[in-house]
Protein: Coenzyme A biosynthesis bifunctional protein CoaBC
Amino acid sequence: GLRALAPQDMAGQTVMVTLGPTREKWDGVRFWSNPSSGTMGASFAVAAWLRGAKVHAICGQGTPWLPSVITRHDVTSAADMYEAADSLWNAIDIGVFTAAVADYTPVPFGDSKFKKGGDDLTVSFTRTVDILKTLGTAKQDGQKVIGFAAETDNLHDNMKKKLAAKNADIIVGNNVAKSGSGFGTATNEVCIVDKNGRQEDWPLAPKPEVAWRVFDWLLQL
Ligand code: CTP
Ligand code: CA
Structure:
C-alpha cells in the first residue's frame, strides 16, 4: 500500500495507541467525559506509520482524522477501551497510552432520561480499570510501554511514581495547567523520564514533533 519517504526504523513493529477521551454513560442522554481531542495520540499513530510500523489506534469518541492505513478501533467507555486494548495486547510490540481515560464511572441511572426534581443531585462513581497499569504489569519480554502523566502540581515527582507504578518504559509528563499544553492544544510542553532514570524537560513543540522525538528516545533505550 501507500508508503512514505521516512526512516523505516519501526518496520516490523506493531504499535497500539490509545487516544482521546472516554465517555462514561450516566442516564439515557448524559455522560461523564473530558476535553481530550486525541491530537497527541493521532500524532503518535501517524509517526509510527511513517516509520514503517503497523498501527492500531483505539479511539475514544470525537477523535479526529487518521489515515486509513491505520487500523482504527472506535470505543466509548473506559471499559470498552480496556477490552479493545487487552484483546490486541499479545500482538503488540509498543503500546502508547495517550488516552484521557476516566478514572471513575458514574453508577448508571439507566436508559431513561433522568427528570429533574429536587435542588441537589448526588451521583456516585466507581473506579474504572487502569488500562496502562494493567497491560504494563502484564508486559512480556520485548514489549515496550509509553505512558503519559497529566499533572497540575509536582510534575517530576508524580511522573516518576507513575513510571514505577505502571511498569512503563517511558513516561511523558505535561503540566495541563500551562497554556499551550495538554488538552485540546496543537502543542505540548513535556518532560520525559525513562526506566533508566534519564530525564529531560523539552520546550513547547507541536504534538507531531513531540511524538516523533519520544519514539527517537524509545528506539535508543
Ligand atoms: N490511564 C489508563 N487507564 C486509566 C487511567 C489512566 O490507561 N483508567 C493511563 C493514561 O492514558 C496515561 C496514564 O495512565 O498514560 C496516566 O494517566 P493520568 O490520568 O495522568 O494518571 P492516573 O494514574 O490516572 O492518576 P491521577 O489521574 O490520579 O493523576
Ligand atoms: Ca487519571
